[in-house]
Amino acid sequence: MAEITAQLVSVDRLLWKGEANIVTAQTTEGEIGVLAGHEPFLGQLKQNGVVTITPVDGDKIVAAVQGGFLAVAGNKVTVLADYAVLADEVDSNAAESERESEDPTQRARSEAELAALRRSGK
């Protein structure tokens, strides 16, 4: 399978960069899958969405994202999220308790984190 260079970046850090077979992301227009040779594209990430990257080597990467953009140009896909956390970094107990938070931003983040955990199968 052909490879595409991918990177997952949040406002405060680079979460992952490397060669991937496919990148999928939930956008405001629906879920999109990006393979090598994809047409140029710019999409807005879903507010409480999930991004999945299947690297050429290694385990699938799943991240919870809030806002931001997905850009495809040439043989490169960039996910630039306002907020992102890898499913492996999520504390499910904390996310469950924060689901009831009165802060709408925190509540939304916990929903996205729990969705990423479900998608990752962990």
From TrEMBL:
Organism superkingdom: Bacteria
Keywords carried by this UniProt record: ATP synthesis, Cell membrane, CF(1), Hydrogen ion transport, Ion transport, Membrane, Transport
Signal sequence range: none
Biased composition regions of type Basic and acidic residues, renumbered to the chain: 96-112
InterPro entries: ATP_synth_F1_dsu/esu, ATP_synth_F1_dsu/esu_N, ATPsynth_dsu/esu_N
Region (Disordered) location: 91-122
Residues of the ATP synthase F1 complex delta/epsilon subunit N-terminal domain: 6-84
Membrane topology value: Peripheral membrane protein
CDD domains: F1-ATPase_delta
Broad class of the protein's primary localization: membrane
Oligomeric form and interacting partners: F-type ATPases have 2 components, CF(1) - the catalytic core - and CF(0) - the membrane proton channel. CF(1) has five subunits: alpha(3), beta(3), gamma(1), delta(1), epsilon(1). CF(0) has three main subunits: a, b and c.
HAMAP family: ATP_synth_epsil_bac (MF_00530)
Family: Belongs to the ATPase epsilon chain family.
Protein name per Swiss-Prot or TrEMBL: ATP synthase epsilon chain
Gene this chain is encoded by: atpC
